[in-house]
Design a protein that fits this description.
With 135 residues, this protein is an alpha+beta fold. Helix content is 33%, strand content 15%. It has one domain (10-26, 34-47, 58-121): Glutaredoxin.
Length: 135
């Protein structure tokens, strides 16, 4: 017997429990009764394929939290990254990620992006099209 589709929409959120933007994303979707799958990157780093999905959509540089403490502490503001370098850095040190990373089906967003999240949560006839997030 095939599995029946869930009536509750589901999103996947990658973030840290102590991140305000991650908490904001979790609260946003829970208030709208979405099923939320949370992956704490401080406990377990995202899979390389998952990060590559975000990098392909937004570019590798969008994954880096350039305003974050870890980025400044490592002195990365003065570096230029070649192809694949930013992704390699994020894979080696998830503290460099710009959070939260949110996936809703094939739609993605990086960082706190309520405008995009609202298009995902709007009733199908309301907003026209469900968009991609911004980086």
């Amino acid at each position: 017997m095939p599995a029946q589709p869930s009536a509750t929409p589901s999103v996947q959120v990658f973030g840290r429990r102590d991140s305000r933007d991650t908490q904001k994303a979790l609260r946003f979707f829970k208030e709208r009764r979405f099923q939320v799958q949370f992956a704490d990157v401080a406990v377990r780093a995202p899979a390389p394929g998952e990060l590559r999905r975000f990098a392909d959509r937004f570019g590798e540089a969008a994954l880096l939290d350039t305003d974050g403490r870890r980025f400044r502490d490592l002195g990365l503001a003065y570096m230029r990254f070649g192809p694949g370098e930013a992704l390699a850095r994020v894979l080696a040190d998830p503290a460099l990620l710009r959070l939260p990373l949110v996936r809703y089906g094939n739609a993605l967003s990086i960082g706190s992006d309520e405008g995009t999240w609202k298009t995902w949560t709007a009733p199908p006839g309301d907003s026209g099209k469900r968009g991609e997030g911004r980086a």
